[in-house]
Amino acid sequence: MLRLLGISEPDLERQLLRRSVTELSADRHACADCGRTPLVGERYHRYARGKVVCELCRPRHADAPQTTDVVRHSERGHAVRLRVRPAA
Ligand SMILES: [Zn+2]
Predict the structure, then answer these.
(1) Which residues surround ligand 1, an ion (CB under 5 A)?
(2) Which of 33, 87, 88 is nearest to 61 (CA)?
(3) pTM exceeding the 0.85 threshold for the entire prediction
């Protein structure tokens, strides 16, 4: 099948890997100062114009951030929850 499309198996593997890495990095916050992605449980600070700064770079900024949040795990909100069934 791959031969019919003109794609070798290693090329297909590289293309799939590139696509998955790009999708993984699309939703992450990166520090505007150092470029590091804050770890799960670490606080990050949001400044004007959506600028995100990690906890390590925060002391470099004299002004107070607009918001401070904690980095959540990617599975947050996707866990199975018990639901209360309405009385019939
Ligand atoms: Zn930083």
Answers:
(1) 31, 33-34, 54, 57
(2) 33
(3) no
